[in-house]
Amino acid sequence: MTTYVIPMLVVAGLFSAGVYLLLERSLTRMLLGLLLISNAVNLLILNAGGPPGNPPVRDHGGANRPATADPLAQAMVLTAIVITMGTAAFVLALAYRSYRLTTAERVGDDPEDVRVSRLTGPEASAVDEDEPEPVPTVGSDDPHELDAIPPEGHNGP
Questions:
Q1: What are the residue boundaries of the structural domains of the chain, listed by start?
Q2: pTM, full prediction
């Protein structure tokens, strides 16, 4: 099986750009990085599927392609596309919810992670995990306040 260099360079470029975007603090860039990585994996699967061949149907092939194409790679990519779109919709919904609650697109530092990272070795082992500190809530979880368009008859807060 021969692997072509140019498609592998495209896969490497898409994957590296996706990882770079995924490590950003902006939710939109994280979503774009996730999509780039999934497209790179799809191209990698197609490239690993081998050269094109005859369709996997009896007596529907050409004489110039001696082998039958493997339909597994195409089926895996189609399944991956559906899973990627579902994941992208979920991340987009999370980003929208986060933006509606905090009115910021960037993900901030978690105060608990910052506090734990500042502890030294003995202090970190002495942290009591049974009683977590209460987390202050931001905004409201009332669906009417989170909707972009308020329902009729709702006068607001």
A1: 4-51+70-104
A2: 0.65
Query: Which CATH number does the domain 4-51+70-104 belong to among 3.30.450.20, 3.30.428.10, 1.10.287.3510, 3.30.1360.120?
Result: 1.10.287.3510
Half-sphere exposure of 145 (CA within 13 A, CB side): 9
Question: In this model, does residue 146 exceed pLDDT 90?
Answer: no
Element holding 64 (H helix, E strand): none
Buried b (16+ CB within 10 A) or exposed e, 53-69: ebeeeeeebeeeeeeeb
Instruction: State mean pLDDT over 112-116.
Output: 80
More confident residue, 16 or 51: 16
**Residue entry with tokens 């770079």:** 20
Query: 52-75, pLDDT tens digit by residue?
Result: 777 767 666 566 666 777 788 889
Neighbours of 118 (CB within 10 A): 9
Q: Are 21 and 30 in contact (CB under 8 A)?
A: yes
Give the 3-state secondary structure of residue 26: strand
